[in-house]
Amino acid sequence: MTIYKTAAPDVALRDITITQRVFENLTRRPDAVVLTDGPTGATLTAADLMDRVKRLAGGLNARGFGAGKTVALMAPNMPDYAVVFHGVAWAGGTITTINPTYTAAEVAHQLRDSGADMLITVPMFLETAQAAATEVGGLPLTVIGSAEGTQTLDDLMGAPQEAQTPVDLDTHIVVLPYSSGTTGLPKGVRLSHRNLVVNVDQIIAGASFEEGEVAAGFLPFFHIYGMQALMNVHLAGGGALVTLPRFDLELFLQISQDHRARRMWIVPPVALALAKHPVVDQYDLSSVEEIFSGAAPLGGEVCDAVAKRLNCVALQGYGMTELSPVTHISPRHAPKSGSSGLATPNTDCRIVDPDTGADLPAGEEGELWIRGPQVMMGYLNNDKATAETLTQDGWLKTGDIAKIDADGYMFIMDRLKELIKYKGFQVAPAELEATLLTHDGITDAAVIGLPDDEAGERPIAFIVGNDRVPDADGVRAHLKRTLSSYKQVHEVYFVDEIPKSASGKILRRVLRDRMKDTA
Ligand code: 4UU
User: Fold this and answer.
1) What is the pLDDT, as a whole number, of residue 400?
2) Hey, which end of the chain has fewer CB within 10 Å, N or C?
3) CATH code of the domain occupying 419-518
4) Which residues form the signal peptide (predicted)?
């Protein structure tokens, strides 16, 4: 077995919860503004944040929605996102984070699958939340802010709970984000306090944080990248955030300029905009020392172009929901263009032949396997998927094809798994296929991703129909009824049959090759 590791020393495993990890830093700077709502300018100081977290935890436990319960949070980035996240964690509960742009059907699926006991949302998404709650047979709703007839977050606040409700750091699920992993439908990813705390420390070890540094936070907190690299790392690492409910290039640039941001946490489509969009020249971004991109491959060319235009370093990180999420980060002083960087501390890596399971010689391309304290506990209620992803001795099979060069830099080369990444968002082909098959005119379907300059990849569909088969617009309308906008297919091809293996698996590579031939 060939194991690759970083030369950097391990970080200590701390026996504390993620909220204790964040509070440790907040306690040192009670008066500092740590969260600002981008659109309204409303702020929370470190003391305000801790106070709201403790009062929410007290209220949740007093009402029986704390320890052992699961609270679903469906909200855009806003300061109270951190209040709910840490309030539930402090109360000994589990948070399942839901994409606020989800349709009612998607929300209902996650509520049902996670066994959520309460749903917290914002007035803007209340109607969808209500429809989803009804679909799962009713569930208490809470809004952040106010809406007539609905309990508010402030109503939930109780007497401050001064101490963390005790939980087992290695087995209690503190957060349950959803990911399709290497195959199939989105699944609940069981992450422990140990997972989150160690990954925060692994990231901070290489991040050279400056006390008080401010970042514009648009990466969604419901996704593991925004949740950990932004929300938890900035709060625990001494930084502050100005939250954006959605990505808006000009607002992002304005906030970065006004707050003299040192770094920009982004995804590849934003790197492309920073490299090419004329509006970028209208802002003073001289404070920016680093752009940090993750969640999808950032090509060397775009990487170099942004670095040159903003006169900063362009770094990349590699992560996966199942890895809490980070395992690789470009070293600030010696990044390599196109590389995701070096392994984080405490992280073992292997490059394995996906067909034989044998370790490959140095420098060759194979599946990236990871072992370390940030590896998830497993999927929720899905032992089969867990067993397919985690080996007996703790290695997680990423489903990504990578190579590691002689200096230990990791390069993602390709993807073995089905997953499509649209602007960094997960699109699970199996979910689209299952939805397509609910149409009585569609007898078989396959969805793959095609390379796309802006989005990274765009989903396209192959359809086998019967005499009731819809046209391309009909196919799109069918998907729109239950799936959110980033899961829509961009092209529809009608075919006689879907190529499959003897065991019935869709031969996605054959479809991809077919598209290359016609391009
Ligand atoms: C090529 O996307 C994420 C997490 C990303 C992340 C988080 C914090 C990156 C850096 C960071 O600091 O999670 P998921 O679960 O949505 O998607 C995981 C998949 C990977 O398996 C891989 O296929 O997203 C792809 N991916 C990347 N691909 C993630 N990062 C990269 C990357 N290059 N740098």
Assistant:
1) 98
2) C
3) 3.30.300.30
4) none
